[in-house]
Amino acid sequence: MNDQANARHDWLNGWRIAGWGAALALLALPAIAMHFTDEVHWTPLDFGFAAVLLFALGTGLELAIRFGGRTPKGLGIAIASVAGFLTLWANFAVGFIGAESEPVNAGFLLLVIGGVLLSLIVRFRPSALRWIMALIATGQPVLGVAALWLMPGHAVEWGVLFVFAAIWSAAALCFHRAHRRATH
Questions:
Q1: Which of 29, 53, 130, 173 is surrounded by the fewest CB atoms within 10 Å?
Q2: Tens digits of per-residue pLDDT, 70-91?
Q3: TM spans, by residue (predicted)?
């Protein structure tokens, strides 16, 4: 009986309720704004996409807490979850290079999806995750170089690409530290 009470307490703790409540509040903001201004035009598809992204972010943070806690592995999962969320949100909102419909922007989507799939395949082992995150970090500026060749005349926001590369690199560093801790 006591284990059931503890399990229920873990599931309904204040931080979890606050986190998922904040995600729902963020999703409600555009709906509320559409009643007060004509500058916000979200379709059901926009709300669905935002819900999927927020659910993925929340799930990533849940995984970070459950499987990593306050360790470098947990921090790495949390950073990677936030980086993936921000990458997809920015890419679909305005696009990293040119408009969001430019073909080179599909590369950013593929980096994140590939990273998620590979992370699942390696079962979140830090020894592999450090290389996956480093690959995604490297892919950011590589896509910028590709855009110079594939999209002549478009400006590449190198600062933005390097900021995102730094975030992914921070996740890689956390996984590297987690791997070193596990091997020593």
A1: 29
A2: 899 999 999 999 999 999 999 9
A3: 17-35, 47-65, 77-98, 104-124, 131-152, 158-175
